[in-house]
């Protein structure tokens, strides 16, 4: 049995053999995708000197406190005015500054008497205030968004300002999923007798989508060797990049997923990792002439399937595609957590941020046992308890994986 770090190294090594396909998409369609190019500004931002306030634009002279109004400039409606030290123009936020003006005085500091505008008594002004200078935010040719970021709405602001109506992003990976087990029924059915709903199928399909990739369902199959083999063969021959199965990778009599995968030409890279939950996880590669694949045989327990997807599949894909993102958070533990074995545990936790202390805190969301779905739905992170740890005390700092 290998450990967590070794397992991740093997996965990342195999994953990096998958070619990153670059495609161009409309800006509206790039949310959640990974930027595959550095983006440079093609204009200065702001493109011209402009007013940061509603007020008047003047040519500063510290001895002058009153001006005659000679015109008006609103945003997008520039008109040329030649100012001397005794004249001003009314200017609105975003309005282009007349070249002869250097200072803006906000309307709140002024009194108006017809065409005469004066500073309120006691108000002091400084040369150059409330003017946003051309290029002060970005200048032509400056790198504004870096390749490797996962695009969120705040990046869209910058990409649109740079005129990127089309963006180069990495194409989504196609990730197929098959769930196995005689006990499984569709979630629309009421499970009778010894049956359970195949919740893993939906959890993992949405986990794949949430991670920004394309999910493809191969449905569910009972513990029937021939039918399972048929389903796996069709998945391996499809155009997916990664194939996920759940169930049937442990040591039970009907756990034949590993055997079938190997028989169909998959090469096992590891089986079983020293972790909890999720120990029976299997990782293989499948090389054929068309599209090579990675195969993850995840355990059937819903929590194990979810945890192993996050720590092995999602985290490594993120590392490979979104080199700029560091997901793990260091937080102060609110509870004592004990463990008896020398496995690495991924315990469900509830992470909160305390702005007044600028620090994260994490509480134990419940059992590490594999089947505890209730604690999983309360959790927003996985607390990492390293192999050698037997007791983490309240107040200690721990590493958490956001989920
Ligand atoms: P297995 O890994 O096949 O031994 O399954 C381990 C446990 O997970 C068993 O209790 C199964 O009933 C349960 N299980 C397997 N597949 C699923 C699934 N798709 N959804 C929910 N539970 C499952
Ligand atoms: Mg099973």
Placed side by side, the strands forming the largest sheet appear as: 7-4-6-5-9-8
- Looking at the overall shape, the CATH architecture of the largest domain is 3-Layer(aba) Sandwich
CATH class of the largest domain: Alpha Beta
Low-confidence segments? none
Oligomer: single chain
The N- and C-terminal alpha carbons lie at a distance of: 26 Å
Apparent shape: elongated
Q: How would you state the average pLDDT, rounded?
A: 95
Any ligands, ions or cofactors bound here, and which? adenosine monophosphate, magnesium ion
Report the radius of gyration as a whole number of Å: 30 Å
Biggest beta sheet attributes:
6 strands, mixed
Helix content: 10-25%
Quickly count the domains: 4
* Helix/strand class: alpha/beta
Number of strands: 28
Query: What is the name of the CATH superfamily of the largest domain?
Result: MoaB/Mog-like domain
Count of discrete alpha- or pi-helical segments spanning 4 or more residues: 7
Strand content: 25-35%
């Amino acid at each position: 049995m290998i450990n967590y770090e070794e397992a991740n190294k093997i996965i990342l090594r195999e994953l990096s053999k998958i070619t990153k396909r670059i495609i161009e998409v409309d800006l509206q369609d790039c949310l959640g995708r990974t930027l595959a190019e550095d983006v440079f500004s093609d204009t200065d931002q702001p493109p011209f000197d402009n007013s940061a306030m509603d007020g008047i634009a003047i040519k500063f002279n510290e001895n002058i406190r009153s001006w005659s109004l000679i015109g008006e400039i609103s945003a997008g409606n520039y008109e040329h005015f030649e100012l001397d030290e005794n004249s001003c123009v009314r200017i609105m936020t975003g309005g282009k500054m007349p070249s002869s003006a250097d200072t803006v005085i906000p309307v709140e500091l002024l009194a108006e008497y017809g065409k005469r505008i004066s500073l309120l008594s006691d108000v002091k002004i400084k040369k150059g205030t409330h003017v946003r200078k051309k290029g002060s935010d970005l200048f032509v040719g400056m790198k504004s968004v870096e390749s490797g970021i996962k695009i969120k709405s705040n990046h869209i602001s910058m990409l649109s300002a740079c005129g990127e109506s089309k963006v180069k992003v990495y194409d989504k990976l196609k990730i197929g999923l098959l769930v196995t087990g005689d006990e499984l029924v569709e979630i629309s059915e009421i499970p009778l007798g010894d049956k359970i709903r195949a919740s893993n199928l939906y959890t993992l399909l949405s986990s794949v989508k949430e991670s920004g990739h394309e999910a493809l369902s191969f449905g569910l199959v009972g513990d029937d060797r021939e039918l399972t083999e048929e389903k796996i063969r069709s998945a391996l021959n499809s155009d997916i990049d990664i194939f996920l199965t759940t169930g049937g990778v442990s040591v039970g009599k009907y756990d034949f997923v590993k055997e079938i995968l190997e028989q169909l030409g998959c090469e096992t890279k590891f089986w079983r990792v020293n972790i909890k939950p999720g120990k029976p996880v299997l990782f293989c590669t499948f090389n054929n002439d068309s599209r090579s694949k990675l195969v993850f045989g995840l355990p059937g327990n819903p929590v194990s399937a979810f945890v192993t997807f996050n720590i092995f599949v999602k985290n490594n894909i993120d590392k490979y595609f979104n080199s700029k993102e560091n997901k793990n958070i260091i937080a102060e533990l609110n509870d004592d957590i004990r463990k008896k074995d020398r496995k690495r545990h991924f315990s469900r936790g509830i992470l909160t941020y305390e702005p007044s202390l600028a620090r994260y805190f994490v509480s134990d969301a419940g059992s590490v046992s594999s089947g505890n779905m209730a604690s999983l739905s309360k959790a927003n992170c996985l607390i990492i308890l390293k192999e050698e740890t037997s007791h983490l005390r309240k107040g200690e700092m721990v590493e958490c994986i956001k989920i």
